[in-house]
Amino acid sequence: MRCLVTGATGYVGGRLVPRLLAAGHDVRCLVRNPVRLRDEPWADTVEIVAGDVTKPDGLVDALRGCDVAYYLVHALGRPDFPSLDRVGAEVFTQAAATAGVGRLIYLGGPEPAEHHSSDHLRSRDEVARIMLAGPVPTVVLRAAVIIGSGSASFEMLRYLTERLPVMVTPRWVRNRVQPIAIRDVLRYLVECPTSVPADINRAFDIGGPDVLTYAEMMRRYAEVAGLTRPVIAPVPALTPKLSALWVGLVTPVPGAIARPLVASLIHEAVCKEQDILEYVPVPPDGLIGFDEAVRLALAKIRDADVETRWSDASWPWASTAPLPSDPLPTDPEWSGGTVYTDVREHAVAAPQGALWRVIEAIGGEHGWYSFPLAWSARGWLDRLAGGVGLRRGRRDPRRLMVGEALDFWRVEEIVPGRLLRLRAEMRLPGRAWLEMRAEPDGEHARYRQRAVFLPRGPAGHAYWAAVWPFHAIVFGGMARNIAAAAKRQAASGSGVSR
Question: Which of 39, 224, 284, 291: CA 20 to 30 A from 85?
Fold first, then answer.
């Protein structure tokens, strides 16, 4: 069976692709920027095509020849996400019909309450209704909170429980939720094309075996993680908007994503039916319970084996800037425009390989090798402005891939052993990149570092002027300290030194 997967650079799609391949299916991935999948271990075993679900051009050709198409894209975090989701669903459904696709599968959210539901759930329900009303038979899987390493819902739960042993919480922590393990979500997605009859056109609720309040989820997470049982005091004063601000400040999930997620918790999210079990039965060892799902997720995090994260999808703020996904332009193309650069280089008394290991391990727990207070302050300012801040960290402590998030950067290019180029995703009046190179210099290496900023309007020029005095401390110190760390690593023969 040939399957087309949208959202392959996202949290669920990035995990679904290798499982479809393992099940013996041919897979075609539709992505806006094919380079984003270049470093995936399964990239050479799938067909990758460029396209956008909101733009008809090329979409029919991308869908042609596919038996089933998975719709796993969502514009969550964009201020206009309901309209973007609506257009995407309409365009994609029509293109699938024109291309002769036999089945659509959409992973949505719980059915919204009749009154006072969140924009997030209403939007996901609208997408489901558009697809179910279309000419192609569709299976909609409605999931509430997904528990798995790297999911936004799990990261919210994890950080709230680990960082706040005493919490004054909003009333929604008393609402019942039926969480589901990411492994069970993926099992349903993989088995639906072959197990659900081709003429079925309907939505199915999917959930795990446990129904818990959010407060109970936090307490049980603490028990599984070996933490002190949190003290939770619900109060009526915290509105969803204030709750989202609180979540945004405490967890890595930025406010633009926390707001719709929190708003979706103000109503209960429990399966109204589980008819999907008629077609995809419970496995012999049963559905994964909440405690086991948490244990599995924590084990993945501990072993640095997180396949995908919520931050794998491009940060929506970056997409509001002109040409957000354009790579760093080559120097000749800058003629006629303003570009600010800060260039540093440093001789390194260590081999090129030792220097590269330091470069590739930058960020996350290893930090940025200069003026930690300045980096931390910049991260907090970005969070307060609604950006991603520094808390996204990194997926793997030592290895990077093109397209993944790294604190408030995105890996735009990586040439193993030589070049790491990062594109800024913090809120900026312009576009910014940071390049780090490891080059041979006789028996040793030379470190070259370049920060590039393309201002947008007067605010962009003012921003560069404001931060320029700090560059000698931040970028100068960064170059010196990276060189020193490489020297220490070469001397010790292992590890990455800060």
Answer: 39
Instruction: Give the separation between CA 306 and CA 18, rounded to whole angstroms.
Output: 14
> 455-476 in b/e burial notation, b at 16+ Cβ within 10 A?
beeeebbebbeebeeebeebbb
**DSSP designation for 41:** T
Chain centroid to CA 459: 29
**Which residue do the tokens 């120097």 mark?**
331
Helix (H) or strand (E) holding 212: strand 212-213
DSSP 243-311: HHHHHHHHSSS-HHHHHHHHHTTSS-B--S--GGGGTSPPPTT-PPPHHHHHHHHHHHHHTT-----GG
Taking CA atoms, 496 is separated from 16, 303, 332, in Å, by 33, 17, 36
pLDDT value for 371: 85
CA distances from 131 to 112, 138, 189 (A): 17, 7, 16
pLDDT at 326: 46
Mean pLDDT of 61-68: 96
Read off the pLDDT of residues 128-186 as tens digits, 9 standing for 90 and up.
Answer: 999 999 999 999 999 999 999 988 889 888 888 887 766 666 666 788 899 999 999 99
Which of 160-164, 223-227, 308-312 is the most confident on average?
A: 223-227
The residue to which tokens 């990035």 are assigned = 14
Q: How far is CA 234 from its chain centroid?
A: 30
CA distance 224 to 219: 9
Q: How far apart are CA 238 and CA 466, in angstroms?
A: 37
DSSP-derived 3-state class of residue 378: helix
405-406/340-348 β-pairing: unpaired
